[in-house]
Prior knowledge:
It holds the Pfam family DUF433. Helix content is about 65%, strand content about 5%. It is mainly alpha-helical.
Amino acid sequence: MDMASNGQAAITRTERGLTIAGTRTNLYDVMDLLKAQYPPKLIRDKFNLDDAQINAALSYIESNHTQVEAEYQEVLQTREEIRQYWDDRNREHLADLASKPCKPDQEALWAKLEGQKAQRVSVKA
């Protein structure tokens, strides 16, 4: 692990993966922004890190690039699998809801909502 100037580990492995010590920010979140070409100062500010923390993260990523990139690819795969699971589950749930008739006391609300949707579509067109 990378060491901070005080001799403490700057990057630690937690149940969430490689994490910047003293934070809940993992290196995979930092890598997302690096790959989106965010500058280090913006990444630092986004995660409320100090200069030593962002420098330790960037240094660790650079010096352990192969290992970190492999783990990052696994994280991306897991994220995609989770997203796909919820997309499928929500699609089924929404289709089930759409197939049920409206409750009589909600029909006026649905009609109003559909009218607002139609107005937005006509304004965009």
